[in-house]
Amino acid sequence: MSGTFLGTPAFPTAARAALEDSQLRRNLAHATATIRTKRGGVVGEVDEWEQLRLAGEAIKNRVLRHLPRYLEQLERSLTAAGATVHWARDAAEANAIVVDIARRHETDEVVKVKSMATQEIELNDALEAAGIHAWETDLAELIVQLGDDLPSHILVPAIHRNRAEIREIFLREMSRAGRPAPADLTDEPKQLAAAARAHLREKFLRAKVAVSGANFAVAETGTLTVVESEGNGRMCLTLPEVLVSVVGIEKVLPTFADLDVMLQLLPRSSTGERMNPYTSTWTGVTPGDGPQEVHVVLLDNGRTDVLADPTGRQALRCIRCSACLNVCPVYERTGGHAYGSVYPGPIGAILTPQLRGVGSDPQTDSLPYASSLCGACFEVCPVRIDIPEVLVHLRSEVVEAHQQASRVPSVQDMAMKAASWTLSSSARTGAAEKAAGWGGRLAARIGRTAPGGRNVLGAIPGGPAGAWSDSRDVPVPAAESFRQWWERTDGGHRDDGGAGNANGNDGGNGDRR
Amino acid sequence: MPRVGLMVTCLNDALFPDTGKAVVTLLRRLGVEVEFPAAQTCCGQPMVNTGYVADAVPLVRNHLDAFAGCDAIIAPSGSCAGSVRHQHGMVAERSGDPGLVRGVENAPPTYELTEYLVDVLGTTDVGAYFPHRVTYHPTCHSLRMLGVGDRPARLLRAVRGLTLLDLPGDAECCGFGGTFAVKNAETSIAMGNDKARHVRETGAEVLVAGDNSCLMHIGGLLSRQRSGVRVMHLAEILASTEPVITGRAERAADPTSVGSATPEAGTAPREQETVR
Ligand code: SF4
Q: Is B177 on the interface with A (CB under 8 A)?
């Protein structure tokens, strides 16, 4: 089950499918608008929200500054509390550790609480290859898994599905994976949830091994935390005999008190709730209560590379709240699959290229450009990640990587060089404007005047102008640039009766009349 | 008297000179004698945002030289003012030239037009007259990079005759985003079409914004859709006075001109659509 993002085309192409799917566009627009409004409401209630954000940012920055120290402390605390700590450099190592633990317990199935880290390393596929079924227990995650689909949102992986589609999937697939859905299932949310509950309950009670992620890991006490809405996670964390948690190394927090800040920021930012319904914390093994064998896999998988980049490292502050996805106008229209990674939206556009390495493939390199740099993501991010700054930074890395890989400059390289040369001198700029102005006068003859007197052209075939003019009228360069006007009229002090601007308009009109 | 330099921006210079002229008219009316340092060109934002930071270095240097003698810089663009304030430091840093870093640190303060009017001149009523229904799009960089807040709305509300209509989803990006509009044209257009639809829903005759780049994108869609809504830079509205700018009246009499929105009685409609 569960596919992979391998082979996803570059963003502009991958986005097309979503842009053409009106149902998907509706689902996304509705879902993101709903969460956005809820978030806005509960964030607005907190007077010191900005202070909280600053505190969240500061805590995470401290973690990143002293990461080795806090990780070693976490390992000590965890070990002292009876947990076994494993270190995994990459996905392969992490998967091997989990497969090995499951094998030792002679089980052919594990239950999972939604975890981004295990999706990132594609643990389910690795387990499957070893003959072990991994059952997702988060409702949305279950929908994605049963539908043989890919997640498209950090928090609501099935955000792209509507109720009718979910009913279809349950009726068709549940019987293959365990307890079937009732034959008279409707698309009422209550009924859908009940079907999932009955289906999952069986799995919880049977599974010997559970796999989880963690939202936070407290170095001082060795406490892991999972924050969730449904309680399925808590079932996973308490019922099985063995618990394996795969935790990204950036999830560590120095002290228990730091949880205070994070647990205020996270639910408000992610689900728009003052507090999430279930917050589970566990510290190693408690004899006679809960899992009696607890493993923690501390996962690097590219994170130390991200840490090494002074601008890019702020992406490691991310607490996966998904607020940036929900406000992103690009995400809202393209959905998560277009990003070709378990981390979609603005955070995916900066995290994925850093984890995979810029310059590795065209799909990855298209991600930093999948943004209009509108800045809405930074505005909502609870830990103040300046996503636009990182996007621009990564764009320069993409350009550099390409220039290093190829001796022949690209069309874009040459265009930028030429523009830089022209625009670094006012004489050259003025000359170019004059040429454009002549062109503009010519173009104005075949164009038309848009309301307000701006001259525009219709569709122009081919090239960047074509991409622009497919749906938008193109403005025509003014017959007389501002600098020409200033010079001719001495900044408007001399009579403005001269060429091209008799009607005080964007040049061109006078000539045409 | 302080020397105030107009940073007209390369886009306005070449494509929308009327915006620059409007700023000059407006500031003069308010008693500010604005200069146009002729050596200026482009702030370098297009290069920076596309990933060509090194190619922006000569532009930043040129910008600093051009405005060296000024006490303040005014730009009729939230985006370009934002770039000067927030990107020049990074470009200088990356150039490895300590002189350039110092130059950026000591550069005159750069104001977006509405910031200068409200914060420095301390005025919201600039004596404008514009008897039309207008809706305002707060461009992302004005809104978020600069935080101009409600300054533009306060200025617009003080314009005599003007009706300011709320734009649904106003804070959402129009989808321009510089090279984004070309590199991700389809997504950009999808965003722009939603913005254009919201604009039409308001029933406004004019869409106004503080950035001609976004207006070029939204206006290009509105114009292709033959919506009849015209786009104007905020400066052009603030510069308008009674009687309406000369030369417009005769165009109103032009039999080929089609005024799509209803102009108020007694005023010359500025909109026209001449189809050749
Ligand atoms: S980048 Fe910020 S807003 Fe986006 S998911 Fe991470 S913490 Fe949330």
A: yes
| A461 or A434: which leads in pLDDT | A434
All residues at 6 or more sequence positions from B110 whose CB lies less than 8 Å from its CB, including other chains: B7, B72, B73, B74, B75, B81, B84, B85
Which residues face A359 on adjacent strands? none
Complex ipTM value: 0.89
Question: What sign does the dihedral B121-B123-B128-B133 (CA atoms) show?
Answer: positive
The verdict on A401 touching B (C-beta cutoff 8 Å) is no
Cα A413 to ligand 1 centroid, rounded to whole Å: 32
Q: Which of A469, A473, A482 sits opposite B8 (nearest CB)?
A: A482
Report DSSP letters for B115-149, one per residue: HIIIIIS--S----B--SEEEE---HIIIIII--T
Give the torsion sign (CA, A22, A24, A25, A29). positive
**Cα-based distances in Å from A239 to A18, A211, A291:** 40, 12, 7
Parallel, antiparallel, or unpaired: how do β-strands A209-212 and A84-88 relate? unpaired
Which of A156, A102, A153 is closest to A126 using CA atoms?
A102
Query: What per-residue string of b and e applies to B71-95 under the rule 16 or more CB within 10 Å gives b?
Result: ebbbbbbbbbbbbbbbbbbbbbebb
A192 neighbors A240 (Cβ within 8 angstroms): no
Cβ <8 Å between B184 and A12:
yes
Helix or strand (DSSP H, E) at A19: helix A11-20
DSSP state at residue A504: S
**Helical ranges in A271-375 per DSSP H:** 303-307, 323-327, 329-334, 345-356, 362-366
Q: Do residue B17 and residue A478 have CB atoms under 8 angstroms apart? A: yes
Three-state DSSP at B82 gives helix
| CB crowding A70-109: b at 16 or more within 10 Å, else e | bbebbbebbeebebbbbebeebebbbebbbebbeeeebeb
Q: Count the helices and strands in chain A (H runs, E runs).
A: 24, 13
Residue A470, number of CB atoms within 10 A of its CB: 14
CA A345 to ligand 1 centroid distance, Å: 10
| Closest alpha carbon to B80 in B10, B143, B152 | B10
User: How many CB atoms sit inside 10 A of residue A471's CB?
Assistant: 18
Going by the DSSP 8-state scheme, the letter that residue A242 receives in this structure is E
Residue A88, both tokens: 């995994």
H or E segment at A154? none
- pLDDT (tens, 9 = 90+) of chain B, 276 residues, equals 789 999 999 999 999 999 999 999 999 999 999 999 999 999 999 999 999 999 999 999 999 999 999 999 999 999 999 999 999 999 999 999 999 999 999 999 999 999 999 999 999 999 999 999 999 999 999 999 999 999 999 999 999 999 999 999 999 999 999 999 999 999 999 999 999 999 999 999 999 999 999 999 999 999 988 899 999 999 999 999 976 445 544 444 444 333 333 334 334 434 433 333
Strands laid side by side in the B34-35 sheet? B34-35, B4-6, B72-75, B110-112
- Cβ atoms of residues A391 and A316 within 8 Å: no
Q: What is d(CA B120, CA A6) in angstroms, rounded to the nearest whole number?
A: 55
SS3 A199: helix
- Contact with chain A for residue B47, Cβ under 8 A: yes
Would you state the structure tokens that stand for residue A229, as one six-digit string? 């809405």
Tell me how far apart the alpha carbons of residues B248 and B170 are, in angstroms, rounded to a whole number.
30
Residue with tokens 């996805």: A325
CA distance B102 to chain A (A): 19
What is the number of the ligand 1 atom nearest to the C-alpha of A346? 4
* Residues in B 51-110 with any Cβ partner in A closer than 8 A: 51-53, 55-56, 58-59, 61-62, 66, 87
